[in-house]
Design goal:
two-stranded antiparallel sheet, TIM Barrel, about 15% strand, single chain, about 300 residues, alpha/beta
């Protein structure tokens, strides 16, 4: 690792693995564009070099859109196992530089429960990654209760990333994920609140990508206008205060200020969306922000160390 990496020691909680076997298997599901081009050339050796240049000591890999669920149980099980085993290989080859959140397909409860056991007990994943919705159902849906119960039993770290968005649900000329992804994240958090999952499963340690979407801006509106339809405001506040949020795509002064006002600094984790978003550019943006040095250190490293329970 470079001197900058040793000095900074950042932990990037939002980092995507794009292994060739999985990428080839879902080739027909990928949209055209720069993201697809970057995905086609991904490899962990170049990832490590980019991490060194950006002062990142450890990255936790996860799957990106479109995930593994396309309505076919057998295909989902095959794709999840393929991605998870490839991710575990990356970590075995670079144990001091990478960890990973294993992927599952919650609409297939039986397959997901089996994959959770395999990923955590055999592959030694750091946690489980979920999409914010599946087939138009958010994570509070009763169909996902068996999966949530098992994740709670295991006191699992669960990273939640937006899933693929229908292109018809956006402003013409604007890609659906640009506008809809943060709102899907917001909807899934509200569904977890409304269906009582955050209270029934208090030992799941949720991380929500991209600063929680619109949640920091809408939580007050939700508490004021729901009239008991979601949760009494104090109970809602206690539930939300247990959630974690990463900084990917919210590395700018106004949004980060709002996030720091919304939740304790202990609940914010450094994340960049690399390599979909260039790591060094995002880290430079992060370093340019005016943040109290003690808070910066907690977000960059200390909070993740405490959450993951591992040495770096």
């Amino acid at each position: 690792m470079s001197e900058a990496g040793v000095a900074a020691g950042r932990i990037n909680i939002h980092h995507h693995f794009l292994p060739s076997g999985y990428m080839k298997a879902i080739e027909d599901k990928l949209p055209p564009g720069r993201g697809r081009q970057r995905a086609a050339h991904w490899n962990p050796v170049e990832d490590v070099a980019a991490m060194d240049a950006a002062g990142v000591a450890l990255s936790i890999g996860s799957i990106s859109m479109p995930g593994v669920w396309f309505g076919d149980v057998a295909a989902a099980r095959r794709l999840a196992r393929l991605w998870n085993e490839d991710a575990a290989t990356v970590v075995r080859d670079h144990p001091e530089r990478f960890g990973f959140f294993a992927t599952i397909a919650p609409p297939d409860s039986e397959g997901s429960l089996a994959e959770i056991g395999y990923a955590l007990d055999v592959l030694k994943a750091d946690g489980i990654a979920l999409m914010s919705s599946y087939d138009g159902r958010w994570l509070g849906d009763a169909a996902f209760a068996p999966v949530m119960t098992e994740l709670n039993r295991r006191q699992c770290v669960v990273f939640v990333h937006p899933g693929p968005m229908p292109e018809e649900h956006t402003v013409p000329g604007v890609k659906a994920h640009i506008l809809e992804a943060p709102f899907d994240t917001t909807r899934t958090v509200v569904s977890l609140l409304a269906e009582g999952v955050l209270e029934k499963c208090p030992d799941i340690r949720f991380i929500f990508a991209h600063g929680g979407g619109a949640l920091p801006y809408l939580a007050g509106r939700l508490a004021t206008l729901s009239h008991g339809g979601v949760m009494e405001p104090e109970r809602m506040r206690r539930a939300l205060d247990r959630l974690y949020f990463d900084t990917a795509l919210v590395i700018n002064q106004p949004v980060l200020a709002a996030l720091l006002e919304f939740c304790p600094a202990s609940q914010i984790l450094f994340g960049t969306d690399a390599p979909i978003i260039p790591l060094q550019a995002e880290t430079q943006n992060w370093c340019a922000l005016a943040i109290d040095p003690a808070v910066r250190g907690r977000i960059e490293r200390d909070n993740a160390l405490a959450l993951l329970g591992r040495a770096v």
